[in-house]
Amino acid sequence: MSAETKRELIDDSKRRHKVAYKYSIVFGLAPEDTGAMREEYTFRLNRLLTTCDKCDYNWHMGRKGYMKEISE
User: Fold this and answer.
1) Where are the chain's structural domains?
2) What is the distance between the alpha carbons of residues 51 and 42, in angstroms, rounded to a whole number?
3) pLDDT (mean) for 49-65
4) Is the pTM of this model over 0.70?
């Protein structure tokens, strides 16, 4: 794998991580307002966090910064 490909993959994973956090805002909305999006997000996130230990680690390591960001 080239250095360029590796950098692109790392950048893509960081982007996906940010998107996952941004979508977690659905937990703060009323279930009747989110429709099926909440169930789909919960299902996919749970599946990811239970099958990929690195994903689970990254999710929890980034949580503190995200909580700070949304509280401001």
Assistant:
1) 3-71
2) 14
3) 83
4) no
